[in-house]
Automatic annotation (TrEMBL):
Family stated for the protein in its record: Belongs to the NAD(P)-dependent epimerase/dehydratase family.
Family matches, as SUPFAM superfamilies: NAD(P)-binding Rossmann-fold domains
Topology versus the membrane: Multi-pass membrane protein
UniProt cross-references to InterPro entries, sorted A to Z: Epimerase_deHydtase (IPR001509), NAD(P)-bd_dom_sf (IPR036291)
Biased composition (Low complexity): 52-63
Reactions the enzyme catalyzes: UDP-alpha-D-glucuronate = UDP-alpha-D-galacturonate
Quaternary structure and interacting proteins, as annotated: Homodimer.
Organism: Cinchona calisaya
Protein name: UDP-glucuronate 4-epimerase
One Pfam family per UniProt: Epimerase
Membrane-spanning residues: 30-49
GO cellular component: Golgi cisterna membrane
Amino acid sequence: MKHIDNIPSTPGKFKMEKSPYNRLRLHSSLAKLTFWSFVFLGLIFVFFYRSPSSSSTGSLPSDLSRRSLRTSSYGDPAWEKRIKASAKVRATNGMSVLVTGAAGFVGTHVSSALKRRGDGVLGLDNFNDYYDQSLKRARQALLERSGVYIVEGDINDVTLLKKLFDIVPFTHVMHLAAQAGVRYAMENPSSYVHSNIAGLVSVLEVCKSVNPQPAIVWASSSSVYGLNTKVPFSERDRTDNPASLYAATKKAGEEIAHTYNHIYGLSLTGLRFFTVYGPWGRPDMAYFFFTKDILKGKAIQIFEAPNHGTVARDFTYIDDIVKGCLAALDTAEKSTGSGGKKKGSAQLRVYNLGNTSPVPVSDLVSILERLLKVKAKRTIMKLPRNGDVQFTHANISLAQRELGYKPTTDLQTGLKKFVRWYLSYYGNGKKSAQ
Ligand SMILES: NC(=O)c1ccc[n+]([C@@H]2O[C@H](COP(=O)([O-])OP(=O)(O)OC[C@H]3O[C@@H](n4cnc5c(N)ncnc54)[C@H](O)[C@@H]3O)[C@@H](O)[C@H]2O)c1
Protein backbone atom coordinates (compact mmCIF):
# COMPACT_ATOMS: atom_id res chain seq x y z
CA MET A 1 0.00 0.00 0.00
CA LYS A 2 3.06 2.15 -0.40
CA HIS A 3 1.62 3.95 -3.44
CA ILE A 4 -0.92 5.61 -1.21
CA ASP A 5 2.00 7.49 0.30
CA ASN A 6 2.74 8.82 -3.19
CA ILE A 7 -0.60 10.53 -3.51
CA PRO A 8 -0.01 14.23 -3.11
CA SER A 9 -1.91 15.91 -0.32
CA THR A 10 -3.85 17.90 -2.94
CA PRO A 11 -5.89 15.08 -4.55
CA GLY A 12 -6.69 16.99 -7.74
CA LYS A 13 -3.02 17.18 -8.61
CA PHE A 14 -2.36 13.44 -8.60
CA LYS A 15 -1.31 12.11 -12.02
CA MET A 16 -1.21 8.43 -13.08
CA GLU A 17 2.25 7.33 -14.23
CA LYS A 18 2.30 5.19 -17.38
CA SER A 19 5.44 2.90 -17.22
CA PRO A 20 4.86 -0.97 -17.52
CA TYR A 21 6.24 -1.37 -14.02
CA ASN A 22 3.76 1.07 -12.75
CA ARG A 23 0.94 -0.66 -14.71
CA LEU A 24 1.85 -3.96 -12.99
CA ARG A 25 1.89 -2.23 -9.64
CA LEU A 26 -1.39 -0.66 -10.58
CA HIS A 27 -3.05 -4.02 -11.33
CA SER A 28 -2.00 -5.58 -8.05
CA SER A 29 -2.98 -2.41 -6.26
CA LEU A 30 -6.35 -2.46 -7.99
CA ALA A 31 -6.93 -6.03 -6.89
CA LYS A 32 -6.02 -5.09 -3.32
CA LEU A 33 -8.16 -2.00 -3.51
CA THR A 34 -11.14 -4.03 -4.75
CA PHE A 35 -10.60 -6.59 -2.02
CA TRP A 36 -10.39 -3.97 0.73
CA SER A 37 -13.36 -2.09 -0.74
CA PHE A 38 -15.45 -5.25 -0.41
CA VAL A 39 -14.28 -5.73 3.16
CA PHE A 40 -15.06 -2.10 3.93
CA LEU A 41 -18.51 -2.24 2.30
CA GLY A 42 -19.22 -5.46 4.20
CA LEU A 43 -18.33 -3.74 7.47
CA ILE A 44 -20.59 -0.80 6.62
CA PHE A 45 -23.43 -3.21 5.86
CA VAL A 46 -22.94 -5.05 9.18
CA PHE A 47 -22.76 -1.72 11.03
CA PHE A 48 -26.01 -0.39 9.52
CA TYR A 49 -27.83 -3.65 10.01
CA ARG A 50 -26.82 -3.92 13.66
CA SER A 51 -26.97 -0.30 14.76
CA PRO A 52 -30.33 1.37 15.54
CA SER A 53 -30.01 3.79 12.64
CA SER A 54 -27.32 5.90 11.10
CA SER A 55 -29.11 8.95 12.37
CA SER A 56 -30.51 7.72 15.64
CA THR A 57 -29.55 9.88 18.57
CA GLY A 58 -29.07 8.79 22.14
CA SER A 59 -29.52 5.30 23.49
CA LEU A 60 -33.05 4.01 23.57
CA PRO A 61 -34.49 1.58 26.04
CA SER A 62 -36.09 -0.26 23.13
CA ASP A 63 -34.48 -0.14 19.69
CA LEU A 64 -37.37 1.49 17.92
CA SER A 65 -35.39 2.95 15.04
CA ARG A 66 -33.98 -0.44 14.15
CA ARG A 67 -37.44 -1.95 14.10
CA SER A 68 -38.67 0.70 11.69
CA LEU A 69 -35.84 -0.05 9.28
CA ARG A 70 -36.74 -3.70 9.23
CA THR A 71 -40.48 -3.38 8.91
CA SER A 72 -40.90 -0.47 6.57
CA SER A 73 -39.47 -2.19 3.47
CA TYR A 74 -37.71 0.80 1.95
CA GLY A 75 -38.08 1.00 -1.77
CA ASP A 76 -40.76 -1.68 -1.89
CA PRO A 77 -43.09 -0.46 -4.69
CA ALA A 78 -46.22 -1.63 -2.83
CA TRP A 79 -45.14 0.35 0.24
CA GLU A 80 -44.52 3.48 -1.83
CA LYS A 81 -47.86 3.04 -3.56
CA ARG A 82 -49.66 2.95 -0.18
CA ILE A 83 -47.83 6.08 0.89
CA LYS A 84 -48.73 7.95 -2.29
CA ALA A 85 -52.38 6.87 -2.13
CA SER A 86 -52.67 7.97 1.49
CA ALA A 87 -51.02 11.35 0.84
CA LYS A 88 -53.00 12.06 -2.33
CA VAL A 89 -54.71 15.44 -2.16
CA ARG A 90 -58.35 15.27 -3.26
CA ALA A 91 -59.63 18.76 -2.48
CA THR A 92 -58.85 21.80 -4.60
CA ASN A 93 -56.15 23.76 -2.75
CA GLY A 94 -55.79 20.86 -0.32
CA MET A 95 -52.50 20.21 1.45
CA SER A 96 -50.38 17.09 1.84
CA VAL A 97 -49.63 16.59 5.50
CA LEU A 98 -47.22 14.29 7.28
CA VAL A 99 -48.76 13.63 10.69
CA THR A 100 -46.28 12.31 13.25
CA GLY A 101 -47.79 10.52 16.23
CA ALA A 102 -50.77 9.60 14.05
CA ALA A 103 -51.64 6.50 16.11
CA GLY A 104 -51.84 8.71 19.19
CA PHE A 105 -54.97 10.30 20.62
CA VAL A 106 -54.72 13.76 19.01
CA GLY A 107 -52.94 12.41 15.91
CA THR A 108 -55.78 10.04 15.06
CA HIS A 109 -58.42 12.75 15.31
CA VAL A 110 -56.40 15.32 13.36
CA SER A 111 -55.50 12.81 10.61
CA SER A 112 -59.08 11.73 10.17
CA ALA A 113 -60.37 15.34 10.07
CA LEU A 114 -57.79 16.28 7.43
CA LYS A 115 -58.63 13.24 5.34
CA ARG A 116 -62.37 13.96 5.58
CA ARG A 117 -61.94 17.39 4.04
CA GLY A 118 -59.81 16.09 1.16
CA ASP A 119 -56.26 16.76 2.30
CA GLY A 120 -53.58 14.17 1.70
CA VAL A 121 -52.43 12.56 4.96
CA LEU A 122 -49.62 10.19 5.80
CA GLY A 123 -49.12 9.05 9.39
CA LEU A 124 -45.89 8.13 11.13
CA ASP A 125 -45.78 6.47 14.54
CA ASN A 126 -43.48 4.09 16.40
CA PHE A 127 -46.37 2.46 18.33
CA ASN A 128 -44.33 2.50 21.52
CA ASP A 129 -45.60 0.78 24.65
CA TYR A 130 -45.98 3.83 26.90
CA TYR A 131 -49.64 2.83 27.10
CA ASP A 132 -51.81 0.00 25.77
CA GLN A 133 -50.55 -0.64 22.25
CA SER A 134 -53.77 -2.36 21.23
CA LEU A 135 -55.54 1.01 21.55
CA LYS A 136 -52.99 2.50 19.13
CA ARG A 137 -53.57 -0.43 16.77
CA ALA A 138 -57.35 0.10 16.98
CA ARG A 139 -56.88 3.77 16.10
CA GLN A 140 -54.64 2.68 13.22
CA ALA A 141 -57.39 0.36 11.95
CA LEU A 142 -59.86 3.22 12.20
CA LEU A 143 -57.62 5.48 10.12
CA GLU A 144 -56.89 2.69 7.67
CA ARG A 145 -60.62 2.45 6.95
CA SER A 146 -60.71 6.13 6.05
CA GLY A 147 -57.69 5.78 3.77
CA VAL A 148 -54.91 7.02 6.06
CA TYR A 149 -51.81 4.86 6.14
CA ILE A 150 -49.48 5.00 9.15
CA VAL A 151 -45.85 4.21 8.47
CA GLU A 152 -44.34 2.43 11.46
CA GLY A 153 -41.13 4.20 12.34
CA ASP A 154 -39.36 6.52 14.71
CA ILE A 155 -39.06 10.27 14.16
CA ASN A 156 -35.33 9.92 14.91
CA ASP A 157 -34.97 7.79 11.81
CA VAL A 158 -33.74 10.53 9.48
CA THR A 159 -33.25 8.07 6.61
CA LEU A 160 -36.89 7.08 6.82
CA LEU A 161 -38.07 10.70 7.06
CA LYS A 162 -36.02 11.67 4.00
CA LYS A 163 -37.40 8.71 2.11
CA LEU A 164 -40.96 9.80 2.92
CA PHE A 165 -40.21 13.30 1.62
CA ASP A 166 -38.68 11.76 -1.52
CA ILE A 167 -41.94 9.96 -2.17
CA VAL A 168 -44.25 12.85 -1.22
CA PRO A 169 -43.21 16.52 -1.18
CA PHE A 170 -45.31 17.31 1.90
CA THR A 171 -46.53 20.89 2.07
CA HIS A 172 -47.15 20.63 5.83
CA VAL A 173 -45.99 18.61 8.82
CA MET A 174 -48.28 18.20 11.81
CA HIS A 175 -45.80 17.09 14.42
CA LEU A 176 -47.57 15.42 17.33
CA ALA A 177 -45.25 12.51 18.13
CA ALA A 178 -43.86 12.93 21.63
CA GLN A 179 -43.40 11.28 24.96
CA ALA A 180 -46.40 12.60 26.85
CA GLY A 181 -47.30 12.47 30.55
CA VAL A 182 -45.61 14.28 33.41
CA ARG A 183 -45.17 11.53 36.01
CA TYR A 184 -43.57 8.92 33.73
CA ALA A 185 -40.58 11.25 33.37
CA MET A 186 -39.31 10.08 36.76
CA GLU A 187 -39.40 6.50 35.55
CA ASN A 188 -38.03 6.91 32.03
CA PRO A 189 -36.45 10.33 31.57
CA SER A 190 -34.51 9.38 28.44
CA SER A 191 -37.70 8.68 26.50
CA TYR A 192 -38.53 12.41 26.82
CA VAL A 193 -35.13 13.45 25.56
CA HIS A 194 -35.34 10.90 22.74
CA SER A 195 -38.76 11.87 21.41
CA ASN A 196 -39.31 15.47 22.48
CA ILE A 197 -35.84 16.86 21.94
CA ALA A 198 -33.75 14.60 19.66
CA GLY A 199 -36.88 13.58 17.71
CA LEU A 200 -37.97 17.18 17.18
CA VAL A 201 -34.48 18.09 15.96
CA SER A 202 -34.53 15.15 13.51
CA VAL A 203 -37.88 16.28 12.12
CA LEU A 204 -36.69 19.87 11.76
CA GLU A 205 -33.36 18.81 10.24
CA VAL A 206 -35.17 16.95 7.50
CA CYS A 207 -37.75 19.72 7.01
CA LYS A 208 -35.05 22.36 6.61
CA SER A 209 -33.12 20.29 4.06
CA VAL A 210 -35.94 19.27 1.72
CA ASN A 211 -37.06 21.37 -1.18
CA PRO A 212 -39.64 22.85 -0.91
CA GLN A 213 -39.53 23.10 2.87
CA PRO A 214 -42.89 22.30 4.51
CA ALA A 215 -44.63 24.51 7.07
CA ILE A 216 -44.65 22.87 10.50
CA VAL A 217 -47.31 22.92 13.18
CA TRP A 218 -46.32 21.08 16.32
CA ALA A 219 -47.65 20.29 19.79
CA SER A 220 -46.12 22.14 22.68
CA SER A 221 -48.02 22.06 25.96
CA SER A 222 -49.71 24.16 28.63
CA SER A 223 -47.18 22.58 30.99
CA VAL A 224 -44.63 25.20 29.86
CA TYR A 225 -46.42 27.65 32.20
CA GLY A 226 -45.10 25.48 35.04
CA LEU A 227 -45.38 27.05 38.45
CA ASN A 228 -46.79 30.38 37.20
CA THR A 229 -49.52 31.73 39.46
CA LYS A 230 -50.92 34.53 37.31
CA VAL A 231 -54.03 33.28 35.52
CA PRO A 232 -55.25 32.89 32.86
CA PHE A 233 -51.99 31.85 31.23
CA SER A 234 -51.10 34.07 28.31
CA GLU A 235 -48.55 33.49 25.54
CA ARG A 236 -46.81 36.65 26.76
CA ASP A 237 -46.15 35.13 30.21
CA ARG A 238 -42.77 33.76 31.25
CA THR A 239 -42.26 30.05 30.78
CA ASP A 240 -39.00 29.49 32.59
CA ASN A 241 -40.05 27.55 35.67
CA PRO A 242 -41.22 24.13 34.47
CA ALA A 243 -42.45 21.67 37.08
CA SER A 244 -41.57 18.50 35.20
CA LEU A 245 -39.03 17.12 32.75
CA TYR A 246 -41.91 16.80 30.26
CA ALA A 247 -42.57 20.54 30.55
CA ALA A 248 -38.86 21.28 30.25
CA THR A 249 -38.61 19.28 27.01
CA LYS A 250 -41.62 21.12 25.55
CA LYS A 251 -40.09 24.43 26.54
CA ALA A 252 -36.82 23.30 24.93
CA GLY A 253 -38.86 22.45 21.83
CA GLU A 254 -40.11 26.03 21.64
CA GLU A 255 -36.54 27.32 21.79
CA ILE A 256 -35.42 24.80 19.17
CA ALA A 257 -38.30 25.92 16.94
CA HIS A 258 -37.09 29.50 17.29
CA THR A 259 -33.61 28.47 16.17
CA TYR A 260 -34.77 26.59 13.06
CA ASN A 261 -37.04 29.47 12.14
CA HIS A 262 -34.21 31.96 12.59
CA ILE A 263 -31.47 30.05 10.79
CA TYR A 264 -33.32 28.13 8.09
CA GLY A 265 -36.52 30.08 7.47
CA LEU A 266 -38.83 27.28 8.57
CA SER A 267 -42.42 28.33 9.19
CA LEU A 268 -43.19 27.06 12.68
CA THR A 269 -46.33 27.14 14.83
CA GLY A 270 -46.34 25.71 18.35
CA LEU A 271 -49.66 24.85 19.96
CA ARG A 272 -49.90 24.75 23.74
CA PHE A 273 -52.67 22.20 24.33
CA PHE A 274 -54.55 22.29 27.66
CA THR A 275 -55.58 18.84 29.04
CA VAL A 276 -57.20 17.32 25.97
CA TYR A 277 -59.88 14.67 26.52
CA GLY A 278 -62.41 12.71 24.51
CA PRO A 279 -63.17 9.43 22.71
CA TRP A 280 -60.09 7.36 21.79
CA GLY A 281 -58.25 9.24 24.55
CA ARG A 282 -55.11 8.42 26.48
CA PRO A 283 -55.38 5.78 29.23
CA ASP A 284 -52.72 7.53 31.34
CA MET A 285 -54.90 10.62 31.82
CA ALA A 286 -57.05 11.08 34.94
CA TYR A 287 -60.48 11.28 33.25
CA PHE A 288 -59.69 7.96 31.50
CA PHE A 289 -58.35 5.93 34.44
CA PHE A 290 -60.93 7.42 36.81
CA THR A 291 -63.62 6.02 34.50
CA LYS A 292 -61.95 2.63 34.49
CA ASP A 293 -61.48 2.57 38.27
CA ILE A 294 -64.97 3.87 39.10
CA LEU A 295 -66.48 1.11 36.94
CA LYS A 296 -64.31 -1.47 38.71
CA GLY A 297 -65.28 -0.16 42.15
CA LYS A 298 -61.64 0.73 42.82
CA ALA A 299 -60.73 3.76 44.94
CA ILE A 300 -59.52 6.83 43.06
CA GLN A 301 -57.03 9.38 44.33
CA ILE A 302 -58.01 13.03 44.09
CA PHE A 303 -55.23 15.49 44.70
CA GLU A 304 -55.52 18.52 46.90
CA ALA A 305 -53.11 21.46 47.01
CA PRO A 306 -51.73 22.80 50.36
CA ASN A 307 -54.37 24.39 52.66
CA HIS A 308 -57.14 22.35 50.99
CA GLY A 309 -56.46 24.18 47.71
CA THR A 310 -58.40 23.01 44.69
CA VAL A 311 -56.62 21.27 41.86
CA ALA A 312 -58.25 22.31 38.58
CA ARG A 313 -57.70 21.78 34.88
CA ASP A 314 -58.77 23.64 31.78
CA PHE A 315 -60.15 20.47 30.14
CA THR A 316 -60.38 20.90 26.37
CA TYR A 317 -62.49 18.64 24.19
CA ILE A 318 -60.71 16.89 21.32
CA ASP A 319 -62.96 18.31 18.56
CA ASP A 320 -62.08 21.85 19.66
CA ILE A 321 -58.37 20.97 19.62
CA VAL A 322 -58.72 19.48 16.14
CA LYS A 323 -60.33 22.69 14.90
CA GLY A 324 -57.42 24.65 16.36
CA CYS A 325 -54.88 22.33 14.69
CA LEU A 326 -56.56 22.62 11.30
CA ALA A 327 -56.82 26.39 11.61
CA ALA A 328 -53.11 26.54 12.46
CA LEU A 329 -52.29 24.49 9.36
CA ASP A 330 -54.61 26.60 7.19
CA THR A 331 -53.06 29.87 8.31
CA ALA A 332 -49.45 28.67 8.24
CA GLU A 333 -47.38 30.62 5.75
CA LYS A 334 -44.82 28.89 3.57
CA SER A 335 -41.31 28.32 4.84
CA THR A 336 -38.88 30.64 3.11
CA GLY A 337 -35.70 28.59 2.89
CA SER A 338 -34.49 26.17 0.27
CA GLY A 339 -31.61 23.76 0.07
CA GLY A 340 -31.02 24.22 3.79
CA LYS A 341 -30.57 28.01 3.38
CA LYS A 342 -32.82 30.77 4.64
CA LYS A 343 -34.08 33.16 1.96
CA GLY A 344 -36.11 35.50 4.14
CA SER A 345 -37.87 35.74 7.47
CA ALA A 346 -40.54 33.13 8.13
CA GLN A 347 -43.57 32.83 10.37
CA LEU A 348 -43.00 31.84 14.01
CA ARG A 349 -46.08 31.48 16.20
CA VAL A 350 -47.20 30.05 19.55
CA TYR A 351 -50.84 29.69 20.61
CA ASN A 352 -52.73 28.49 23.65
CA LEU A 353 -55.44 26.00 22.74
CA GLY A 354 -57.56 25.63 25.87
CA ASN A 355 -61.17 25.92 26.92
CA THR A 356 -60.89 28.96 29.24
CA SER A 357 -62.97 27.37 31.99
CA PRO A 358 -60.97 25.40 34.53
CA VAL A 359 -62.91 22.71 36.39
CA PRO A 360 -61.87 21.27 39.78
CA VAL A 361 -60.86 17.62 39.46
CA SER A 362 -63.46 16.70 42.11
CA ASP A 363 -66.17 18.13 39.80
CA LEU A 364 -64.83 16.00 36.97
CA VAL A 365 -65.35 12.97 39.21
CA SER A 366 -68.92 14.05 40.06
CA ILE A 367 -69.77 14.33 36.35
CA LEU A 368 -68.30 10.87 35.72
CA GLU A 369 -70.33 9.43 38.63
CA ARG A 370 -73.54 10.78 37.10
CA LEU A 371 -72.70 9.54 33.60
CA LEU A 372 -71.56 6.10 34.75
CA LYS A 373 -74.30 5.87 37.40
CA VAL A 374 -71.71 4.55 39.85
CA LYS A 375 -70.51 6.23 43.04
CA ALA A 376 -66.75 6.76 43.11
CA LYS A 377 -64.65 5.72 46.10
CA ARG A 378 -62.69 8.94 46.62
CA THR A 379 -59.40 9.20 48.49
CA ILE A 380 -58.07 12.70 48.98
CA MET A 381 -54.29 12.94 48.68
CA LYS A 382 -51.76 15.74 48.91
CA LEU A 383 -50.63 16.89 45.45
CA PRO A 384 -47.22 15.25 45.07
CA ARG A 385 -44.32 17.28 43.73
CA ASN A 386 -43.65 15.01 40.80
CA GLY A 387 -44.70 17.15 37.90
CA ASP A 388 -48.36 18.08 38.34
CA VAL A 389 -49.26 21.71 38.83
CA GLN A 390 -52.20 22.99 40.86
CA PHE A 391 -54.17 24.51 38.02
CA THR A 392 -54.17 25.39 34.36
CA HIS A 393 -56.26 28.10 32.74
CA ALA A 394 -55.82 29.33 29.17
CA ASN A 395 -56.17 32.80 27.83
CA ILE A 396 -57.15 32.01 24.24
CA SER A 397 -57.66 35.50 22.84
CA LEU A 398 -54.63 35.26 20.53
CA ALA A 399 -55.84 31.99 18.97
CA GLN A 400 -59.34 33.45 18.79
CA ARG A 401 -58.10 36.49 16.91
CA GLU A 402 -55.60 34.85 14.58
CA LEU A 403 -56.96 31.33 14.10
CA GLY A 404 -60.67 31.94 14.65
CA TYR A 405 -60.38 29.36 17.46
CA LYS A 406 -63.53 29.12 19.54
CA PRO A 407 -64.03 26.06 21.77
CA THR A 408 -67.67 25.02 21.99
CA THR A 409 -67.78 21.87 24.12
CA ASP A 410 -68.19 22.05 27.89
CA LEU A 411 -66.87 19.32 30.16
CA GLN A 412 -70.29 17.74 30.82
CA THR A 413 -71.02 17.40 27.06
CA GLY A 414 -67.53 16.21 26.18
CA LEU A 415 -67.40 13.62 28.97
CA LYS A 416 -70.77 12.27 27.88
CA LYS A 417 -69.26 11.55 24.46
CA PHE A 418 -66.15 10.06 26.05
CA VAL A 419 -68.16 7.76 28.34
CA ARG A 420 -70.35 6.61 25.45
CA TRP A 421 -67.21 5.72 23.48
CA TYR A 422 -65.54 4.08 26.50
CA LEU A 423 -68.51 1.84 27.19
CA SER A 424 -68.84 0.79 23.57
CA TYR A 425 -65.10 0.25 23.11
CA TYR A 426 -64.54 -1.67 26.33
CA GLY A 427 -67.92 -3.38 26.19
CA ASN A 428 -69.67 -1.92 29.23
CA GLY A 429 -66.75 -2.77 31.43
CA LYS A 430 -66.62 -6.43 30.29
CA LYS A 431 -63.36 -5.78 28.47
CA SER A 432 -61.35 -3.44 30.68
CA ALA A 433 -58.76 -0.80 29.80
CA GLN A 434 -55.27 -2.02 30.65
N1 LIG B 1 -53.39 15.08 25.29
C1 LIG B 1 -53.08 16.17 25.98
O1 LIG B 1 -53.77 16.54 26.92
C2 LIG B 1 -51.89 16.99 25.60
C3 LIG B 1 -51.65 18.18 26.30
C4 LIG B 1 -50.55 18.95 25.95
C5 LIG B 1 -49.72 18.56 24.92
N2 LIG B 1 -49.95 17.39 24.28
C6 LIG B 1 -49.05 17.01 23.19
O2 LIG B 1 -49.82 16.69 22.05
C7 LIG B 1 -49.20 15.65 21.31
C8 LIG B 1 -50.16 14.50 21.11
O3 LIG B 1 -50.52 14.01 22.39
P1 LIG B 1 -51.47 12.77 22.60
O4 LIG B 1 -52.29 13.04 23.77
O5 LIG B 1 -52.11 12.42 21.32
O6 LIG B 1 -50.38 11.67 23.00
P2 LIG B 1 -50.22 10.17 22.51
O7 LIG B 1 -49.19 9.56 23.38
O8 LIG B 1 -51.54 9.51 22.43
O9 LIG B 1 -49.65 10.33 21.04
C9 LIG B 1 -48.29 10.46 20.73
C10 LIG B 1 -47.95 9.40 19.67
O10 LIG B 1 -46.60 9.61 19.29
C11 LIG B 1 -45.98 8.35 19.14
N3 LIG B 1 -44.55 8.55 19.38
C12 LIG B 1 -43.94 8.89 20.55
N4 LIG B 1 -42.61 8.98 20.37
C13 LIG B 1 -42.39 8.71 19.06
C14 LIG B 1 -41.21 8.65 18.27
N5 LIG B 1 -40.01 8.86 18.81
N6 LIG B 1 -41.33 8.35 16.96
C15 LIG B 1 -42.55 8.11 16.41
N7 LIG B 1 -43.69 8.14 17.11
C16 LIG B 1 -43.61 8.45 18.43
C17 LIG B 1 -46.63 7.45 20.18
O11 LIG B 1 -46.57 6.08 19.83
C18 LIG B 1 -48.06 7.98 20.20
O12 LIG B 1 -48.89 7.21 19.36
C19 LIG B 1 -47.93 15.30 22.07
O13 LIG B 1 -46.87 16.05 21.53
C20 LIG B 1 -48.23 15.78 23.48
O14 LIG B 1 -47.06 16.06 24.18
C21 LIG B 1 -51.02 16.61 24.58
